[in-house]
Amino acid sequence: MTPFLRKLLGLNWLLLVNMLALAIFGIVAIYSATYMRQDTTALDFWRKQANWVAVGFFAFIATSLIDYRWVKWGALPMYFAGLCFLILTRFIGTKVYGARSWLHFGPVNFQPAQLAVVAGIMVLALFLSQFRQMHPMLRLTLCGAIVGAPCLLILMQPDLGECMIWGPIILALLYVGGLPLRYLSCVVLIVLAVLPLAYTAVLKPYQQERITAFINPDIDRQGSAWAINQSLIAIGSGGWSGKGFKAPNTQIELGFLPATAVHNDYIFSAIGEQWGFVGGLVLLSAFALLLVTCLFVAFTAGDLFGTLLVIGVTTLVFTHIFQNVGMTISLLPITGVPLPLISYSGSFALMIMFGLGLVNSVWVHRKVPVR
Q1: pLDDT digit string (tens) for 309-350?
Q2: Could you tell me which of 111, 158, 223, 298 has the fewest CB atoms within 10 Å of its CB?
Q3: C-alpha distances in Å from residue 257, one per residue of 25, 126, 206, 286
C-alpha cells in the first residue's frame, strides 16, 4: 500500500462525513431562507455557498494529507498576509452592516479577519509549543502581541464580533500550553475590569444600542431591539417540528427577519422556524459530535503542537456556534458572527474547512515520529 493511499484510508471519516453533512444542510438552509426573494443576487446565495463548500472540501482533503508539522513553515507568512489584508481593508474595504470588513477582488469576496484568526491560531500553537521553558509572564506578553496586532485592526473596522472570538481562543491555547492558572485568572479579571471603560470609549453608538437591546429587549421594539424580538418570535413559532421546508407565511417570507442577514447572522432563527425544536436539536447535536471528535483528536495528537492546533480550531468553531446561536435566542448581544458551515459566508466556510483539515492532519499523522 502506498503512503498516499494509507493516508487517504486513514482519514477521520467521522469528522469528514459530519463536516460535509453540516455544509450540505447549510446550503439547503440558505436556499430555504432566500428562495422567495425576487432579486437575482439573493437567488445566487446558495449557489455561491455550494461553490465555496466545494473549494473548501478540496482544501480539507489537501490539508489532511499534508503533515501538519509543515504548518510551521507557513504559519508566519499566512499571519503576515492576514495583517496585510486587514490593513488593505482599512483603506479599500467594503462596508457591510457598518463595518469596513470585506475585500473584493473581482468575483471573489472575503473577510480578512477570518484568515487572520486561523493564521493567529497557527502562530500561537507554534510559539507555545516551541518556547515552553520561557517565563510565563514573557510568554503571556508575546502571545498578547501576536493577538493584539490583528485584534486592533479588526476592532478599527469596527467588527466587534470577530474581535470577541480571540478571547476564548487565546485562553484555551494558553491553558493547554501550560501557562499557570494564576496568570490566566489575572488576565480574566483585568478584562472584566476594563469592560465598562471599553463600552463607553471603544464601542460605536450602534454597538452600544445592541447591548442595551440585549439587556432590555422591550426598550425599542421598533428600532434596536427589532431584530432580536423577531428572531425570538420566529424560533418560538416553529414549535416542536417547525412550519416545514419552504413553508409560506413565515417570518422569513414576510420579511420580519432582516432580509439582508437572515441567510447569515440569523440562519439559526430561520432553521428554528422551518425545522422547529427537533431541527435545532439535531443541528446542535451534529455540532456537538463535531466538537467531541476534534477533542478526541487533540487527546491522541502526537505532540504538543498538534494538540494546540486542534484545540485552537475547536475553540474557534465552538465560539462561533455559541455566539451565533446565543444572539438569536437572546443569550448574548447581537454581534454578527456567522454559524460555521451553515451561514452564508463563503470565505468563512473555506477557512473552517481548512482548519478542520488541520485537525484531520493531526489525526492522520499522529503516529508519525517527530523529527
Answers
A1: 999 999 999 999 999 998 888 777 777 788 999 998 878 899
A2: 223
A3: 20, 42, 18, 25
The DSSP 8-state label assigned to residue 247 in this structure reads -
Whether residue 4 is contained in a domain is answered as no
Can you say how many angstroms the Cα of residue 119 is from the centroid of all Cα atoms in its chain? Answer: 13
Copy the grid coordinates of residue 222.
Answer: 421598533
Closest CA to 136 of 177, 91, 86: 177
- In SS3 terms, 106-156 reads as CCEEECHHHHHHHHHHHHHHHHHHHCCCCCHHHHHHHHHHHHHHHHHHHHC
C-alpha cell at 55: 473549494
Domain count, the chain: 1
CB 274, CB 333: distance < 8 Å: no
Structural domain containing residue 193:
12-364
Nearest to 164 by CA among 287, 335, 310: 335
Q: What is the pLDDT of residue 312?
A: 95
Helix 346-364 vs helix 267-299: crossing angle, to nearest 10:
20
d(CA 203, CA 301): 40
> What pLDDT, on the 0 to 100 scale, is given for residue 263?
82
Specify if 3 maps to a domain: no
Peptide bond into 158 cis (omega under 30): yes
Whether pTM > 0.85 for this model: the answer is yes
Q: Residue 318: is it exposed, middle or buried by C-beta count within 10 angstroms (0-12/13-18/19+)?
A: buried
pLDDT per position as a tens digit, 154-172: 887 777 778 888 889 999 9
Is 36 contained in some domain? yes
Cell matching residue 159 = 467588527
Say what the pLDDT of residue 37 is.
Answer: 67
- Asked if residue 23 is part of any domain, the answer here is yes
Segments of the chain with pLDDT less than 50: none
